Amino acid sequence: MQENFSGMALFLPWIVAAVALLVALVSVLRGGGGRFERLLEREAQERAQDVEYHRAHLSEVERVLSGRLDQFRLETSERLSLLARSLGQDQAEGRLLLSDALRDMAQSQNEQIERIRATVNEQLHGAVEKQMQTSFQRVVEQFSAMQKALGEVTSVTAQIGDLKRLFSNVKTRGGWGEAQCRSILDDILPEGSYETNFRLGTGGENVEFAVKMPVRGSDVPPRLAIDSKFPTEAYERLLNAFEAGDATAERQARKELENAVRFEAKKIASKYILPPVTVEFAVLYLPTDGLYTEIARMPGVIDEIGRLYRVMVMGPSLLPAMLRTVHLGYVTLTLEERTEAIAGLLGATRQEMLRMDQVLEKLHRNAGTMGNTIEEARQRTRVLGRRLRALDGTNEDMEESLRATGSDVSGKLGSG
User: Fold this and answer.
1) Residues forming a β-bridge with 195
2) pLDDT at 409
3) Alpha-carbon distance 225 to 387, whole Å?
4) CB 269 within 8 A of CB 311
5) Which of 405, 407, 385 is nearest to 397 (CA)?
6) Distance (Å, rounded) from C-alpha 398 to C-alpha 75?
């Protein structure tokens, strides 16, 4: 604009001179030479005054516009600096709050997982330890009772007469042994863990008791066959020979009792050990501790029967200990199932932590987007500075351009 006024100042004297020349020509045409000179002089003075006036006016206009432009440039720079400081402060505060929130959230999640882990370990350890202590205590008690029973063999021998009258009938002593074995099973094993008179396979024999063994991941668990036997005839002959003091008859009766037990063990092995329907061993139950004691006194008989026929010979004192071991297997299986459920819960918690990490990653990307928006605003500020330096329009055009630029920056910040 200043260059336009300077160009007009250069051409203005020539315009005034041309007008004065026209006026002079008109005056000459109308007559009067002295008058013409006076007019020329007057016109020259007026022209000089006009030129001086216009020069002063243009200088004043230039000074006012320069002052306004400097003031406007200073105000714009201060506003942009204030805006940049405000955005930087807000961004720093937002990052600080986000960092604190993420740290608190991670700490809370870690504490919760540690509490869950400690609770699970404590419960599992307490339950297993309690059950093991109880089971081993019962086993110790049963072995103590067995030792006490072994020490009372003489007392048991004195009661053989009553047993003779009671078990003179084969069905009576067989039913008594079966009832005693059933009572032990009911006292130790949980309900539904064994079956009576169970048929082994499609063409197999019926066994008196079939205990379901605790096996993981099997719909049809294998059975443990338990058969009660009471060879009273051979046992009575042994007692009679012992009372009579006949060593030869005692050795013969002891051999007959050994053969009878071996024969029953062989029958049990051939009829009731059928893997995979059953386990690879069975139990021959002797219903009295006295009878079991006599078998146990025979060197190597119980071990040989177990090795050859895979049959375990047990009496009323040993069978409960073995059944408690089976019951402990049920307890252990239940604990493993609960452990798997807890492991599933911890896996689900881990998945939730992974989802939380994805959310935190999104928040981190949004914080980066805010920084990019601030950098774009600074670029727009530099563009605005270049426009101010190259300003060549009126004051109103400059203000309109500034408003348009401010609206563009505001729209970018709002979208970010």
Assistant:
1) 210
2) 38
3) 101
4) yes
5) 405
6) 14
Residue 312 backbone phi and psi in degrees, to 5? -100, 125
For residues 287 and 180, the answer to whether their CB atoms sit within 8 Å is yes
Structure tokens given for 74: 């200073």
- Please give the C-alpha separations between residue 8 and each of 11, 244, 297, in angstroms, as whole numbers: 5, 160, 142
What the block records as the tokens of 390 is 């190259």
pTM above 0.70, yes or no: no
Task: Kindly calculate the radius of gyration of the chain based on its CA atoms and give it in whole angstroms.
Answer: 58
Q: Look-up: residue for tokens 């009671």?
A: 166
* Nearby residues of 296 by Cβ (< 8 Å), 6 or more positions away: 302
246 three-state secondary structure: coil
Rounded CA-CA distance 134/140 in Å is: 10
At residue 219, φ and ψ (nearest 5 deg) are -70, -35
CA distance 312 to 208: 16
Q: Where are the alpha helices (DSSP H) in 231-288?
A: 232-244, 247-272
pLDDT in tens, 325-354: 888 888 887 787 777 777 776 666 667 666
Q: What is the side-by-side strand order in the sheet with 282-285?
A: 194-199, 206-212, 223-228, 282-285, 311-314
Cα gap 83→113, rounded to integer Å: 45
What residue type is assigned to position 56 of the chain? A
CB neighbour class for 173 (10 Å; exposed up to 12, middle 13-18, buried from 19): buried
What tokens does 357 get?
């990490």
Among candidate residues 180, 210, 186, the one with its CA nearest the CA of residue 287:
180
DSSP line for 146-179:
HHHHHHTHHHHHHTHHHHHHHTSSHHHHHHHHHH
Amino acid identity of residue 165, one-letter, is R
Confidence at residue 86, expressed as pLDDT on a 0 to 100 scale: 84
Instruction: Give the tokens for residue 96.
Output: 């600080």
pLDDT at 311: 92
**Helix H or strand E encompassing 379:** helix 319-389
pLDDT < 70 stretches in the chain: 1-17, 19-37, 151, 153-175, 202-203, 217-218, 345-350, 352-361, 363-364, 367-368, 370-416
